[in-house]
Design goal:
single chain; alpha/beta; Alpha/beta knot; Trp Operon Repressor, Chain A; 2 domains; two-stranded antiparallel sheet; 9 helices; binds 6-chloroguanine
């Protein structure tokens, strides 16, 4: 998979793909990520990428011209499966979307700022708009990291034990059961006996029951969908 990320703050991604699972994915050439500074496509001497909005009102709008010049330039090298815009009024990101994106070959992500981007760019060039939750971030960059992380870790081969990603919370509309490691007794706080029993069937049943109970209690919405 190749991912192009267009941003006016490339520095916000420093280190984001240089640790842990994402680092391994990059090193194994399972994904390549390229940061593009939108200002490189500005057309005036101030390298402007935003301007006042027509009709008046507070807040700047990201102008269409640098966005289109940038996209058209990058499209000469690649045909994108999705042209994504990260925006709080986009479709709410979930595991199912992460699964779908993990199957794509070429993605481009546009990170918005200010009041948003010119509506004409959204209507004529963007193919998918994504929000990561009902709160407002200063810009789409942290959301881009979230979306990339969730998709990249699902690419076959990224996680060693391939069943590990499949047993994640949400992958089957259940949240994960509790987990424990050594010691079995820490200051009187004990690991449930069943996990020490070595009885695989009982352990599987216990984990499933825990997952269902946790989901009922914490995320009942997941059970009704
Ligand atoms: Cl994708 N962008 C911004 N600016 N805020 C958000 C968001 C995205 N998703 C949730 N809040």
């Amino acid at each position: 998979m190749h991912i192009d990320i267009v941003t006016i703050h490339p520095g916000l991604f420093a280190g984001a793909f240089e640790h842990s699972i994402l680092k391994r994915a990059v090193q194994a050439n399972l994904v390549s990520i390229n940061l593009i500074n939108l200002r490189d496509y500005a057309t005036d001497k101030h390298r402007s990428v935003d301007d006042y909005q027509y009709g008046g009102g507070a807040g700047m709008v990201m102008m269409i011209e640098p966005l289109v010049l940038c996209l058209e330039d990058l499209q000469q090298k690649r045909k994108y499966d999705e042209v994504i815009y990260l925006t709080p009024d986009g479709e709410l990101f979930n595991q199912s979307m992460a699964n779908q994106l993990s199957l794509k070959s070429n993605l481009i992500l546009f990170c918005g700022h200010y009041k948003g981007i010119d509506e004409r760019f959204r209507q004529h060039f963007i193919t998918k708009e994504i929000s990561i939750g009902d709160y407002v971030l200063s810009g789409g960059e942290p959301a881009a990291v979230v979306v990339c992380d969730a998709a990249i870790r699902l690419i076959p081969g990224v996680i060693n034990d391939e069943t590990s990603a499949l047993s994640d919370s949400f992958q089957d509309d259940l949240i994960s059961p509790p987990v424990y490691s050594r010691p079995a007794d820490f200051r009187g706080m004990k690991v449930p006996d069943v996990l020490l029993s070595g009885h695989e069937q009982n352990i599987t049943a216990w984990r499933y029951e825990q997952a269902v109970n946790r989901t009922k209690k914490r995320r009942p919405d997941l059970l009704n969908s």
